[in-house]
Design goal:
- It is a single chain.
- The chain is of the alpha+beta class.
- The protein is elongated and about 95 Å long.
- The strands form two sheets. It has a 16-stranded antiparallel beta sheet that branches. Strands 12-13 form a two-stranded antiparallel ribbon.
Length: 502
């Protein structure tokens, strides 16, 4: 086997066109990843989102009825109603500013303790939601479930937050007598004095998929919470309540405007926006490190051509007879070719991916573009995973070249099964979202999930499409799909190589 690998390696390195082809593929990958067009892929103003604790991009937009808390304290309130307004859609079109009654599943109203009124500041909140029961949420990404069910006058929810130093504990109750602790969180960014606390309401954007693809028409929504039995204990400032529209959110018209009314101890608070981690689906704010690997798509085409010709060139020139005569074990010949083309493409992809991921990030940041943060482990996974995608794609193209024996047919087949699904779902999505989901589960293009770095948050409703960096499969599961295709193609190639004449 070692002799067969050495022989195939000698063939590969002595054919100048194949070596140049790989170098061109690597060069294109790096040129596109490091070129000046990178900074133009995202408008700077829209790519500088609000940052929360830990540098996480967040949405922080809500109506806040507040008082100042200088030290420890507790706030309690009963929620007796939550209603809302949604944009009215006719098919995929929204007729002007028309609205209809309805609630977003993650519409929120309740009580909150927040470091300040500055967007992105630390907070903890107890809330009722449109369809997800009572929740305790904190610092944008944290979410703990409380009592289930929808709130109403007949089925109210009592909420309580207790602040002690930098620790906030949330409670809920169905009757205001028997309380259950929902969670306790530590907020290191909470100042000792001048903390803001009170009542709030907010409702996230509605995103309607246009033409069934990842494009979306978005519109603000609103909700209105009715709260009473508001009680304060501890070091709260005296005086009247102050209302602020945090994030300067504006709602649809006609419909309830953001604001609050206070009458006979009952507060009616209306708001629009969200307090949550930001995702890229409908908003397009920020980019991921996968943006630096945009050239992988072009480099893959060059690699597929070289890999297919690594086998088909022998058929075209009649050298396959000499090869099989010198190495009668045909399985070893195919395995040696697969090992050589897989190794050289993996190394080529590893170097080019490492260069563009490391230096491409610097290019984007220098252009003022916000990059969603990732860990060092995730960077390594993206770099090594991209190299593995290229290696497996090369071996798949080699197998197709063995099966079809013609360069044009093998290259076309590889492009159809690898490149076109990626293009129609990621690069230039034209397929309905539901179809995209299955294409990126079943075709070799599923392997590009190794470049995904963004988490999907269950508490954020959005269009989680591949174009925005979200894939239906986990990174290594997607790579396993391509590996399965490659293994099946190599098995078919081996079967036909043994049965057919050279």
């Amino acid at each position: 086997m070692i002799a067969a690998v050495h022989a195939e390696w000698t063939k590969f390195r002595t054919v100048r066109g194949w070596v140049i082809g790989l170098l061109i593929a690597a060069g294109v990958t790096m040129a596109l990843g490091l070129g000046p067009s990178q900074s133009g892929s995202c408008n700077v103003s829209s790519c500088q989102p609000t940052l929360g604790p830990g540098g996480v991009a967040v949405t922080d937009s809500f109506y806040f009825v507040r008082r100042s808390l200088d030290g420890d304290g507790t706030i309690t309130a009963r929620v007796t109603g939550l209603t809302g307004r949604l944009p009215a859609f006719a098919g995929t079109q929204r007729p002007g500013n028309a609205t209809r009654a309805g609630l977003m599943p993650w519409a929120k109203a309740g009580i909150i303790i927040k470091a300040s009124t500055t967007e992105g500041s630390a907070y903890a909140a107890m809330m009722v939601t449109g369809a997800n029961g009572v929740r305790m949420q904190y610092d944008y990404t944290g979410d703990i479930a409380g009592l289930p069910g929808r709130v109403s006058a007949a089925s109210p929810r009592w909420l309580r937050l207790t602040r002690h130093g930098d620790t906030v504990t949330g409670y809920d109750s169905a009757d205001g007598t028997r309380w259950t602790r929902v969670g306790t969180v530590r907020l290191p960014a909470l100042p000792a004095t001048a903390v803001q606390g009170g009542l709030f309401a907010t409702s996230p954007q509605f995103a309607s998929s246009m033409y069934g693809t990842s494009g979306a028409d978005t519109a603000p929504t609103q909700d209105t919470g009715v709260l009473d039995h508001v009680g304060l204990a501890g070091h709260w400032a005296a005086g009247s309540w102050t209302g602020d529209d945090i994030g300067a959110a504006g709602g649809p018209a006609p419909g309830p405007s953001s604001g609050f009314r206070q009458a006979a101890g009952t507060f009616t608070v209306s708001g629009t926006g969200d307090i949550a981690p930001m995702v890229t689906g409908a908003t397009g704010n920020g980019v991921t490190i996968a943006q630096t690997l945009i050239g992988t798509f072009a480099g893959l085409v060059g690699i597929v051509v070289v890999a297919a010709m690594f086998m088909t060139a022998e058929y075209r020139r009649g050298l396959i007879r000499t090869t099989l005569a010198a190495a009668p074990h045909r399985g070893r010949v195919l395995a040696a070719k697969a090992a050589v083309i897989g190794a050289v493409t993996f190394l080529t992809g590893l170097v080019s991916s490492a260069v563009v991921v490391v230096f491409g990030q610097r290019t984007l940041r220098a252009s003022g573009v916000y990059l969603f943060p990732v860990t060092a482990f995730t960077e390594v996974r993206v770099i090594a995973g991209t190299a593995a995608v290229l290696a497996l794609a090369a071996m798949l193209a080699l197998a197709l070249g063995t099966v079809l024996r013609r360069s044009a047919g093998a290259v076309t087949a590889a492009i159809v099964v690898i490149v076109l699904p990626y293009m129609f779902c990621v690069a230039a999505p034209v397929l309905p979202l539901g179809v995209q989901d299955w294409v990126l589960r079943l075709t070799p293009a599923a392997a590009f999930a190794v470049q995904a770095t963004l988490p999907q948050y269950h508490q954020v409703t959005d269009i989680y499409a591949a174009q925005a960096g979200y894939f239906p499969l986990a990174p290594w599961a997607g790579l396993a799909v391509l590996a399965a295709w490659t293994a099946a193609a190599l098995a078919l190639a081996l079967f036909l190589l043994r049965r057919r004449d050279a």
